[in-house]
Amino acid sequence: MTFPALLDSCTLFGTYLCDTLLRIAETEAFRPLWSTEILHELQRNVIKRGIPVAAIERRIQEMRRVFPDAEVAGYEPLIPSMTCHEKDRHVLAAAVRARAEVLVTFNVRDFPPSSTTAYDVQVVHTDDFLVDQLDLYPGAVTGTLRRQAADYKSPEMEPADLLTRLAAAGVPRFAAEARRHL
Asked: Which domains does the chain have, with CATH numbers?
């Protein structure tokens, strides 16, 4: 069984980055997890950026279809006992409830070790997480990136174009390392 990784809403925000993470998860490199609250936060933030409601609803529906066991339930009673940043207590509570080994986020500082150590949850920056996936599964990750780029039709894209977009989305080390492998 693949290791469970809770994905914070910020990791799912950008379309290309979200697609990359979930395509890698489809290779069974890791098991993606999220909560209803994380998905609601994602939806709110994407809509604020001007993306049509129907587009984000389709995206979330597809995420739920492809990963039917990803949604964590029953974490709500744990929220008050979490000591991380107040706005992220629901995220840590979901990670704890799901027994996630890692919590993947861009907001690492919001989850100090004092708030996570007791639960044996490692908080990992999204860039570091993807570099680790590339190190562990270079063939699967580079194959995923090639297929992902080939699947885009508007605009058409080469893997190098995808990596440029991923670097801009906040994972520059991963993009640079992946470029060396392609």
From this structure: 4-181 (3.40.50)
